[in-house]
Amino acid sequence: MNKLKLLDLPYQIDYLEPAISSQQLSIHHDKHHANYVAKANELMEQLAESDERPGLDFGGVYKKLAFNVSGDYLHNLYWESLGKEGTVTSEIEKILATGFKNFRAFVSQMKQTALSIEGSGWAALSYNGTNQSLTLLQIQNHSLNIIPEARILLVLDMWEHAYYLDYKNDKEKYFDNAFNIINWQKVLERYKAVMAVESV
Predict the structure, then answer these.
(1) Which one of 21, 78, 108, 159 counts the least CB within 10 Å of its CB?
(2) Which burial class, exposed, middle or buried, applies to 98 when counting CB atoms under 10 A from its CB (0-12, 13-18, 19+)?
């Protein structure tokens, strides 16, 4: 059985300050994200030993496994989506203009997508291979039962544990500050990787 491994952050713990404090980032990565990885490995072990576990609730285990594996996947995308080195270039603006009126319209719609999530979830920019267009998504909890062929280019964690230490219940302020440290170079790399696959 291949276990999941908690990946290291792609930067130092204080790199995202002041938008995201080192304390907030440490708890988010080392506690919350780590818990999803540990729980996923525990559930995979239960499945691997299912012959020795009569009466195992396969449906319940697979549901929890999907939740925790998706949590790990989305968090890894989120960490890489943040970084001060990213700048909005004319190339990025041109790409976003294919799905939105302009960059300002994209930011406005992304913000509305994020702030209108009911409960816990994620706001994501994706490329929808079904109709070859950019699409915004609301991902409830960690449920990746989303639009088929939607490949995530940018994701923001809108769970309370992503911002409560720094922003309390002010999700809008968290969004604004987090959006100022988007690693647009990484978003561009993901877009180009998707386009390379689409062109084959």
Answers:
(1) 108
(2) exposed
